[in-house]
Design goal:
The protein has 175 residues and is an alpha/beta fold. The protein contains 3 helices and 18 strands. The chain has helices at residues 2-14, 24-40, 44-58; strands spanning 61-62, 67-68, 72-75, 81-82, 87-88, 92-95, 99-101, 108-110, 113-115, 119-120, 124-126, 131-133, 137-138, 143-144, 149-150, 159-162, 165-168, 171-174.
């Protein structure tokens, strides 16, 4: 169950098994997971209530149709936006003001899977006010720095430090 993955991710981040219960952003995850389940069982009006509660209480907009399968950790989450076609297969951390989504109608097929918004693999970090837009893949262990805008794939373990510029060891490489 995804909420258990969220709990485990928060516990790992905080270093305590009980601390997630004291984190307000964990309850944002709970509202998102409830909204998502209610949407899947076609109780859309009730799902929208939990979505709206997230918007009002936490200033976070996570569409209930987003497929966030791993553990999600939201840190200082005000202003976070996650679109309806975003997919996350593993754990990820996202900081305040970050946006995942937007595609202007672009679609992409990789290994028989079609997607139109970001696809996150495992252990991805999205920094403060970063924007990851369109059908891009953030591979295992990649990070997006503060204020970066990503419109192209990010390889495993890479760090994006500005608009599609990847910091590769000690030099910057344009992708």
């Amino acid at each position: 169950m995804s909420i258990l993955k969220d709990y485990a991710a928060y516990a790992e981040h905080s270093g305590s098994k009980l601390k997630p219960l004291t984190k307000t952003m964990f309850y944002c995850n709970v509202f998102f997971r409830l909204s998502s389940v209610l949407y899947k069982v076609r109780l859309v009006p009730v799902a929208r209530i939990f979505w709206l509660l997230n918007r009002i209480l936490f200033s976070i907009d996570i569409d209930p149709r987003a497929r966030l399968r791993g553990g999600m950790v939201i840190l200082h989450g005000a202003g976070v936006v996650i679109g309806r076609f975003v997919t996350a297969e593993g754990n990820f951390k996202i900081y305040q003001g970050a946006t995942l989504g937007g595609n202007n109608g672009k679609k992409r097929t990789v290994n028989g899977q079609t997607f139109s918004q970001p696809y996150l693999q495992n252990n991805v970090t999205i920094g403060i006010n970063a924007a990851v837009l369109g059908p891009v893949i953030l591979e295992n262990g990649s990070s997006v720095g503060a204020n970066a805008v990503v419109t192209k794939d990010v390889p495993a373990g890479a760090v994006v430090v500005s608009n599609n510029v990847i910091l590769a060891q000690k030099s910057a490489v344009e992708v």
